[in-house]
Amino acid sequence: MHNGLFWSLAICVAAPVTIFLTLVCAAARKGIGVRNYLALRWPGGGTIAVWCLIQLAFIACVDGLIYLLRGRIVPPFMVDVYETAYFVPLLWFAFVLVAPVTEELFIRGFLFRGIERSRLGPAGAILLSSLAWAALHTQYDLCSMTVICLGGLLLGFARLRSRSVYPAIAMHLVQNLVATIEVAVCLAVAQPSG
Predict the structure, then answer these.
(1) Are 72 and 173 a contacting pair, CB within 8 Å?
(2) Whole-angstrom Cα distance, residue 21 to residue 110?
(3) Which helix (H) or strand (E) covers residue 60, if one does?
(4) 15 to 101, 124, 135: CA distances (angstroms)
(5) Strand, coil or helix: what is 129?
């Protein structure tokens, strides 16, 4: 459960299958194209940059609060995974690029659109997609899963406002990049110099 090499390989192996099935299921929806169903509409670089800045502000606020409450930002799970990665570049690739693209295409692309078109509407899509995203992260403690759910609300709002999945992908990438940098820094500081 805490083996970084396993997580890296599992993410990279599962991603093409997940993306393929997401595309197949989206294509099966009659009357709406895959690009439209998954919100694969480029909103412009400026829009993505603004949402990434909002994401960075969210990360700073949450990290500050977590530090005040727990005294540490990095969850023990991530330390264990990083220390057992064996090939750290693969871990970075899996966590920072592959996981955000895969999860967002499914959660804020496919799942979001299906819920949004139901009686639950946009608010239900934001809430349920956030809960589903948090449920995918059971490797974390309740505090971390709560933060993931709150972050999911922000990603869902970005998806709704931009009418595109790309801001959510970029924001998720920023989130995972910052989290992975935090783990690397935490371990570097903990290492005795010599």
Answers:
(1) no
(2) 10
(3) helix 45-70
(4) 9, 26, 18
(5) helix
- Per-residue pLDDT of 97-141, as tens digits, reads 999 999 999 999 999 999 999 999 999 999 999 999 999 888 888
Average pLDDT (147-174) is: 96
What does the alpha-carbon distance between residue 168 and residue 113 come to, in Å, rounded to a whole number? 14
Dist. CA 135–CA 118, nearest whole Å: 21
φ/ψ of residue 138, rounded to 5: -70, -5
Helix (H, G, I), strand (E, B) or coil at 25: helix
The pTM of this model reads: 0.93
Are 107 and 132 contacting, i.e. CB atoms less than 8 angstroms apart? Answer: yes
CB atoms within 10 A of CB 20: 10
Residue type, 194: G
For residue 10 the two structure tokens come to 């599992």
